[in-house]
Design brief:
The complex is a heterodimer of chains A (288) and B (297). Chain A has one domain: MetI-like fold. Chain A is 66% helix and 0% strand. By secondary structure, chain A is mostly helical. The longest helix of chain A is centred in the first third of the chain and has 32 residues. Chain A is built from 15 helices and no strands. The two termini of chain A are 42 Å apart. By secondary structure, chain B is mainly α. Chain B has a single domain, classed as Orthogonal Bundle (MetI-like fold). In chain B, 75% of the residues lie in helices and 0% in strands. Classes of the chains: A mainly alpha (288), B mainly alpha (297). Chain A: InterPro entries: MetI-like, MetI-like_sf. Chain A: Its main location: membrane. Chain A: Keywords: Cell membrane, Membrane, Sugar transport, Transmembrane, Transmembrane helix, Transport.
Chain lengths: 288, 297
Amino acid sequence: MKRLSYRKIALLAAIVLLSAIVAMPFVLMLLSSFKTMAEIQSPVFRILPNSFSFNNYIEAMNQGNWSRYFTNSLVITLITVSLGLITMSMAGYAFARLNFKGRDLLFFFSLIGLMIPEQVILVPVFIKIKQFPLFGGNDLWGTGGVGMLNSYLGLIIPQIAHPFGVFLFRQFFLQFPKALDEAAKIDGCSRLRALLRIYVPASLPVFATVALLKSIGSWNQYTWPLVITNDNSMRTVQLALSIFKTEYSVQWNYILPATTLIALPVLLLFFLLQKYYVRGIVTSGVKG
Amino acid sequence: MRYFRNKSVFTDRSGYLFILPFYALFVYFLLIPIGEVIYYSFTDFNLFSERKLVGFHNFNLLLEDQVFLKAMRNTGVYFLFTLIPTMALGLLAAVLLNTTLFRTSWARALVFMPHIVSMVSVSMVWMWLYDPTYGLFNRVLSSLGFDTMHWLIDPKTAMPSVIVMSIWKGIGYNMIIFLAGLQGIPKDYYEAAEVDGASKIKQFLHITVPLLAPATFFLFVTGVINSFNVFEQINVMTSGGPVNSTTTMVHQIYLRAFTEFKMGYASAQSVTLLCGVVLITILNYRFGGSRKKYGED
C-alpha cells in the first residue's frame, strides 16, 4: 500500500511538472501582458506585474484598426463555418446513406485531398482567385482586374469545404440503422426532408465537432490571408499582430496583450467544448 | 440475391445533387490546382506578360539556386529534429496521463493548449522568450552565471530555436492521439502479463508499443507532411534569416511567388515539394503498412 502511494506521488509530480513546462509560456504571456514597457525591459525580472491595469490592452487596441481586424476574422470564420457545415454534411449524408453509382469511388477519390498540403497549391489557387471571371473588374476570361483578391469572397470560398469534414460526417451518419431510411421512404419523406428532420436533429455531436474544428482553424489561419490580402482594411487578427513589429523595434507591451486577446476566443471555445474537439481529432487519427 | 435487388429499389440519383456543392469546390480548388501547378512549372508565368512553355528550364535553374538548395537542407533538418522528439514526448505525456489513480483532465487540457492557439500567436510569445535582452531564456542563463545566447539572431542557433518551439506546440496533439490509442488496449493484456511476471518495461515494449502502431503510423505520416510544409513560424519568427539559415521550401515558394511574382519558378519549387511529400508518403505505406496491420489484429 505504501509503495503504491509513493508511486502515486511521483506520478503526480511528473504530471504537474509536464503541465507546468508546457503552460509556462502562456502564463508568462498573460501576466506580462499587464506590464508596462519599463517593467518588461527592467533588468530585474519579476513574474507578477506591478499592477493589473488594462492600459496596455486599451493602447494596443488603439494602434491600427483593431475593431476592423476582429470584425474581419469573425465574419470570415462565421461564414466559412456555416457554408462548410451545409456543404460537408450534405455530402457526408449522401456518401453514407444514399445509393448511387460510383458513390464509394467518388468518396475515396476525394480523400486524396487529405494528402495534398495547402502550401503546394498556393500558387494556382491564388491565380484562380485573381482571375475569377466577372469579379473585381475581370472579364469573362478572368483578365483585366484583380478578381477576388482583397475581398471576403476570396478569403472564404477556397476554405469552405475540405474532405476531412465530409469524412467525419460520413462516419457519424453510417451509425444509423438502415430501417430508418426505409421508414422515411415509406412515409413519403424526400431525401432532403429525411436529412433535415431525422438526421440533423440526431447528429448534434458531429455538427459541434466539425464546427469547432473549422472555427478554430479558420480563426487561426495565416498563410492564405497573408497571400491574398494586402489592404490594411482586409487584414485578419493573425496578420494584424505584425503591426507591432518593425525591423528595428518590437513593442512587447502591445504584442503580449494583443496575442492574449486573439487567443482568448479559441481557448474559451476549446475549454467549453473540449469533448467534441477531442472526439473529432481522435476519430481521424485512430479510426481513420 | 433478393437483398441486393431490394437495395436497388432505393437507388437514389439525388445523391449526386447532395455531393455537388462539396465536390465542385473540391475539384475546383484542390484537384484542378494540382494539375495547374504542374503545368505552370513548365512555363515562365509571371502575372505580367504572356506565359509560354519553357520545358525544364525552371527545374534546371532550381538545381543551381543555392538558396533553394539551402532551403531543402533546412527543411530536412527541421523534419528530422522535430518529428521524432515531438512523437516521443507526446507518447511520454500520454503514458503519464493515462493513469486512473487520479483525475488528469486538467493536465490534458493544459498540455493540449499550444495546439489550439494559432502558430502566429505562439511564435510571437516565443520570440519574446528568445529576446536577447528582455527574454526569459537569457535572463535565466545570466542569473545562473552562463553566457547569454543570440537565439534567433545567430545563424547557428536560429533553426534549433524554431525547432524547440515547434516541438512544444506539437506535443499536445501527439499526446491526444496516443492517449486514444492507449485507451483502446484491453486491460486484461496487462493483467495477464502481470500474472506471468513481466516487468513494467517489458509490458510497455511488448504490449503497448506494438498495439500503438496504428496511432504511431498515423502521427508519422501526418507529421512528415506537416514538417515538409513548415512556413508560418519561419515567416513570423525569422523571415528565413539570418543569412538564410532558417529559410524552408514553402518560405522560398512564398517569396518567389508573392514578392517577386515568379509564378512559373515558384510552381517548379511547389512540384519539387509535392514530389518529396508523395515519395515519402508512398515509402511510409510500403514499409509501415505491415506494422499497421499487426496493430489492428
